[in-house]
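Continuing the batch. This is chain 6 of the set; chains 1 through 5 are on the previous pages. Same settings as before, nothing changed between runs. Recording input and output for traceability.
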Amino acid sequence: MSLRDEMPKEIRCLRVPKKRGEEAIALASEARVVDKEFKVHRDEDSLCIPLLSEPREDTLKTLEENGVTYQILTCTFQERKKQKPSLIEVLSTELPPHLLASLPHAMDFVGDIAIIEIPDELNAYKKTIGEGILKTNKNVRTVLAKAGAVSGTYRLREFSVIGGEQKTETVHREFGCQYSVDVAKAYFSPRLSYEHKRVASPVKENETIVDMFAGVGPFAILIAKTHQNVKVYAIDANPHAFDYLKKNIRLNRAVGEVLPFLGDAKNVVDEKVTGVADRLIMNLPEKAIEFVDAACRALKPEGGILHFYSFVSTPNTLEATKLRLAEAVEKTGRKVKEVPFSRMVRETAPCEWQAVLDANIS
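Output for chain 6:
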């Protein structure tokens, strides 16, 4: 039973300073604990986020390690006006009663596109579900059903249109930036919103950053838009993602701050950006470990920060991932001085998570 079921009006909430509100909402949404049936409450100095359940310890630890002060308390919230019925209400007369419980509780929104995973038992009703999502989400123009797992060099998946316009291209807005993307041609995950902000926040003036797997630019462009006198080298091997990266650099007026390169990250590092980086971003969890040698070559001789992403599955742990990274770095003649921050970013499959290590390399 959710907290909202127990206390329809007086519910638990996460209270944070208003200036860190968007960041906290992104993290709470990533953890899937935001109760969207109630309005976020704002006062002069703070913001209160209604919760479905208590945030996990790792979620709260992330807030603390990023300097976000918070309180968990009980507040009175105003319920959102229900202009439209919920998805389950819309579909209650369209689906057999025994299948309503199989309806997915979560979906991703990229711009005006909703992306959902349809269980096998609901496959015959996917068009009906797509129409239901359109009816209950006024800003959605297209509903896509996942038709396979993320795979291949470019981390793509197949989709089928189950509602609305026949398209896979949209414009996604996040932390004041706009990203044009075709989700069928370039990898993009709105669930990494908090990571984009978290990695951008500690960047200092005059830093040089290398984003080794930049995609359409959500890390690189946000860094350029929120910091003065920085230079970001953004690399991607996918020509479609690269085209959108260049478009998004122009769209966000980051020309000159973000420098795009098409090609394999190892080759681009050796040819263009050896020994220049204060900070590297390695968001390719499937294969980032294979690029540690190139990352170490891109770092300045005195070292720098590595934001290293990997998949972690039981029985392996974050500690095992730290050891793997340390061993890979040592093979290059460098050393991991410390790992001041690590966390599980999101669950990607049963007993599997995407994790991030922030490593200080000398």
